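hiii so um. not sure if this is the right channel but i have a protein structure encoded as tokens and i wanna go backwards to a sequence. like what aa goes where. can anyone help
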């Protein structure tokens, strides 16, 4: 049964994971570096950071094309996943305010994780951060066929929560994620954990940290017309 949500309140809040809740980007970069070193390759870090917000397969195909590598990207993807999960077990770091915000929003909203990450990685990190229990739904890479900027991951999360996608709020950190939220008909809060504000202008609200709890709550409680009118707020 769908939750009974007041008219001027978003029906649910959907979190991206990497770059929003969990500071996993350094671990992803390190995983890629280890993988390519094993293969006898040295890939510039700038090419690896270009993978923020896109799938591993997409990044691998781009790097293969740039470096004339002929190989099956799915095999490399699985090896990178193994390396990454090992690093994740050793060290997990939440962004400032992330765990506290999840606990606060859980009191009044159904929450979901909607991410392009592997389910095992999401659940491992969320469990280590003691926040997994606050999410009713986890939608991961395995649950969708199209990835951000396609809206499928957000639409799937809304369907699993039993809420209409229109009006849901997404918390994202990447341009691809914001584009996916917009395509799903959802409102979007962008946090500048991974990209500068100039690359996040399509969001409805741009914040510098998830510690800005009162601004986030005001956005979530505000009338939809106010949230979508005018330029993105800072």
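sure thing!! here u go:
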């Amino acid at each position: 049964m769908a939750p009974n949500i007041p008219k001027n309140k978003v029906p649910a809040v959907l979190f991206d994971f990497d770059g929003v809740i969990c500071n996993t980007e350094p671990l992803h970069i390190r995983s890629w570096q280890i993988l390519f070193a094993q293969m006898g390759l040295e890939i510039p870090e700038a090419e690896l950071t270009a993978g923020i917000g896109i799938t591993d397969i997409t990044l691998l195909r781009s790097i293969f094309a740039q470096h004339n590598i002929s190989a099956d990207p799915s095999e490399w993807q699985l090896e990178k996943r193994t390396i990454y999960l090992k690093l994740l077990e050793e060290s997990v770091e939440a962004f400032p305010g992330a765990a506290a915000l999840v606990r606060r929003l859980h009191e009044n909203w159904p929450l979901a994780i909607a991410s392009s990450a592997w389910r095992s990685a999401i659940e491992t990190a969320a469990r280590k951060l003691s926040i997994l229990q606050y999410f009713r739904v986890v939608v991961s890479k395995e649950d969708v066929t199209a990835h951000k900027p396609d809206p499928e991951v957000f639409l799937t999360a809304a369907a699993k929560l039993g809420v209409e996608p229109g009006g849901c709020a997404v918390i994202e950190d990447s341009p691809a994620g914001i584009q996916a939220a917009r395509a799903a008909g959802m409102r979007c809060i962008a946090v500048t954990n991974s990209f500068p504000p100039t690359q996040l202008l399509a969001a409805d609200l741009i914040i510098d940290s998830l510690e800005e709890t009162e601004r986030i709550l005001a956005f979530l409680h505000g009338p939809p017309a106010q949230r979508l009118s005018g330029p993105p707020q800072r």
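oh and The chain is about 45% helix and 10% strand.
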